[in-house]
Amino acid sequence: MHNALRADHNATGRVKLLVWDDQLAAKAQAHADLCTWGHTSGVGLQGNGESIMSQPPVVQYPINGLDVCSYAAWALYQEVTNYNFDVPGTSKEADMPVGHLINLLWAETTRLGCGYTKCPVLGSYVVCWYGPGFYMTPNYKRVMGKNVPRSRCQRATGDDWCEACVGKKACVLLSGGLDSSIAACLGKDVLGLTAAFTVVASDVSTDREHAVVVARTSALQHHLIDISLEEVLQELPNCVRVLQTFDGMALRNEIAGKLAASRAQQVGGKAAR
């Protein structure tokens, strides 16, 4: 999975393929076995990079066909939405994480080793070490834009994490409330919407009934996504990490948006508006 993601950002041919390193894997495994959330100290890394990810104990693998380590790589790659390709070494918004993404895509990194432990509290705990670490390069912030290059599609469109690169059809996340209903009603003519997605976590929710009526009235293809508590818990750690908040409303909206966006992408959707 690491090399597949790196290949997507190798339009210039600068990004090297990673090879497995048993010594890095042993160090990563030793850290994972501690079952303590947090990074190894800078001195302890000995010039290497480190990424960590965990999922609650209730989560079962594979997820979408991905084993635990492949899923970890995919999840860490989602920081690509935060990275500012035009201002190397920064995120699009202050304090949004991009370090795991840079570990994964850094062009000069050549070696990889990962460890995995199922911890009582943290759940599935994955630690990956990368050699050499990106911060060991002199003036790394000034060359980060070159070493985390745009994908071929991003280069062609001039867009960082671009709607043009992920599909063909535009869609709306439809809750059945006022804002999304207005967007849906106007969307077919104004926004070019073709489909609506509604995430429902309860049989007694009024969202389902209202969203069905709005989608039918707006002549949009409607996708109802029923989710369980287990699915919510599965998405929660990544949403907390990305948003860096424990605000219940923000996390609820983010989880619904992420699940809807994933389903939209599966059916060829371009953007959730």
Automatic annotation (TrEMBL):
Q: Which residues form the SCP domain?
A: 1-138
Provide the GO biological process annotations.
asparagine biosynthetic process
In terms of SUPFAM superfamilies, this protein maps to: Adenine nucleotide alpha hydrolases-like (SSF52402), PR-1-like (SSF55797)
Q: Specify the species.
A: Chlorella variabilis (Green alga)
Would the keyword Phosphoprotein be found if you checked this record's keyword annotation? no
Matching entries from SMART domains are given as: SCP
What is the protein's known function?
A: Probably involved in the defense reaction of plants against pathogens.
Record bears the keyword ATP-binding: no
- The name under which this protein is listed is SCP domain-containing protein
Drop me one GO molecular function for this one: asparagine synthase (glutamine-hydrolyzing) activity
Which UniProt keywords are listed? Pathogenesis-related protein, Plant defense
Q: Which InterPro entries match?
A: Asn_synthase (IPR001962), CAP_dom (IPR014044), CAP_sf (IPR035940), CRISP-related (IPR001283), Rossmann-like_a/b/a_fold (IPR014729), V5_allergen-like (IPR002413)
Q: Which Pfam families match?
A: Asn_synthase, CAP
